[in-house]
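Title: Prediction job returns without error message
Component: structure pipeline
Severity: low
Priority: P3
Assignee: unassigned

Description:
Job completed but the reporter wants confirmation the result is attached to the right record. Sequence as submitted:
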Amino acid sequence: MMLRLTLRASLVCLFVAAQTRAAEPPAHAWTPTLLHDANAWPHSENDAHIAVTARGLRLEVASGREFAIAAASQLALPKELGRIRVSVAEMGGGAEWFVRLYGALRQPGDRRTLAVAQDETVTGERVFDLDPRARTQPDAPLQLQLGVEGKPGAYAIFEGVEFLPAVQRANRQPRRFFQAGQRDIAAVELMPNLPDPYELIDWREKARAYDRLVFDSQAQGEFLPLVWLEDSRINMDRPTFGLPSYVGAPDQARGKRNSQEGVTCMGAVLGATLAGIDKSRQEHDYVAMCEAWFNTSNGMNLVLNRQQDGAGGSFWYEIFPHIVFYALADRYSDKPRLPEIMRITADRWRQVCLDLADTNGVPDFNHLSFDFRSRKPVNNGRWREPDAAAGVAWLEYAAWMRFHDSNYLAAAESCVRFLQAQKANPFYEVLLPFGTLITARLNAEQQRDYDVDRSLNWCFGISDCRGGWGVTVGRWGGYDCDGLVGSIDNRGGYAFAMNTFAQASALVPLARYDTRYARAIGKWMLNLANSARLFYPGALPPGHESSAFWKGDPAHVIAYEGLRREWQGKSPCATGDPVAMHWGPKTDLGLYGSSYVGMLGAIVRPTSVPRILQLDCLATDSFHDQAWPTFLCYNPYPAPRTFEFTTGAKLSDLYDAVTRQVVKRNVRHKAKLTLPADSAALIIVVPAGSKLTRVGSQTRMDGVIVNYR
């Protein structure tokens, strides 16, 4: 799915680049009459069938083609542009219509495509909201593209296009309170303090119920059971297990050799582990079974997405399985084979850093992937995945923490240096947040001075290497859907469960290494924890999900692959790629994303006050040094609030790393804390009577670091 979208975008960019090399005429204002002026579309596709009719501009796909585009350039659009109203009078031949903007949207001279509408199949009037981050150069003229996709003869008649201001969100009021010492994340400030409607589900129980269903080998019903045992013994001399990446996936039938994906299966083991389930002591030792994804039989000696797989196709598919495997190695220290595999693969990725390094020792990850056999980078001429450096930085720093070999630390730093040198946002899929965490850890633990701010804002902004990729901001239908991770311009927004859960797992721990971002991360996580419930069946009204026909999950524990801002006239809509794109699986319910719900289950806890959460900053912080229990709490309300904080059974003191003071002494089980309006605290639960000392820039309680600055 994701590679297909990137290819489509690259083809459009090639078309536009070819059509805009000549000198452009002066900018002119858009008027609806241009739809009735054939001369207004000089940059249209050369062989597109374009005609002006009494009803508007008619586009038809020509013989031998799959799409037609009409393009009007040098349009001076309203500076306050926030919505586009499009009217299509007629269509036929199985056409799907689209609308795009092209030009210097975010930086002078940097021309990019913004997909406003895509795969539209109905006539009439539609209004599309634009993400407020999508256009930050309001004076730059833009090109309007109206298009049709389909077989030759497919056509659509565009009757009207209007450019309108944004509708202001009622629950986003001007900011009144500013917490001293805290830094903003620009995208988070576009999110509401009090998301509405608000419902916090029990994420821990959701994760545990997911584990019960998907690992139930006796489950009965359509597409059940989901788990199977596989005895192909490709990489180890014992059976392993499999899970389909989607419910009803025909190519991942039970027992089919090498069909199961590591991101799904290892992710399910990790997610359950984070939710408090020991996956090594069940009917099978599922942790040991994960060794099957360490590809030895083909000589790759890498943890890959298949048990018999290669490298060189896509960095994120090759690095993310390692991150999941390393996280398991951190949590199952009694498994001697896991650290062995970890060390072998860390050495392999360290060598990649050396093979890609320049004379200053900085590796160049501006590639699609890496061929481990030829020891050369791989490119396809269409897209690159430079945030691979972020993933490798996480792997190498984890190896440094586990084995204390300075070569791993050097490799991690070389990757961070590459990221620091980037001029544009390198976020491709899922890896950048992990490198951002390592950037903060290097500053805190190794006394470095890397720029965390830019990298963190990249994680929430709009990618420059993969147009439209970022964190969602906006109200979809009647729901605040802020804080999710995915495409912000695919039909107005398309967020994915896996990416959302993974980004939370990477960035919540960052607050303990750099407390300046406690408020921003707390506010984001409040929005995410609320919005992410909409990935699940039953969370939206009937008709707003694409696979409600499947009745094998009455508890609704398997999430949809993603959440679209709009699909087939419904907003929002829980859906995915398989049903929409007709490419195999019978449902859009994605186990590959649902497997990571344990990350939220481990992090998010409620308190006695709605919308004030207690976020566990250690739960997903792999290979961290000794630390006392650490929790991030954020008060989104416009007035101080007192809430009950869960401390545990031992007599404890509570230290706030944001204000750098002990806020409670001699408490157990519950403690009442008060937070000022729109502010955060990083509460560390230390043994009662702990002595506070300072060593250099660090503050310690009973010898354990509680503040790095």
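Comment from assignee: result matches the submitted record. The longest helix spans residues 337-355.
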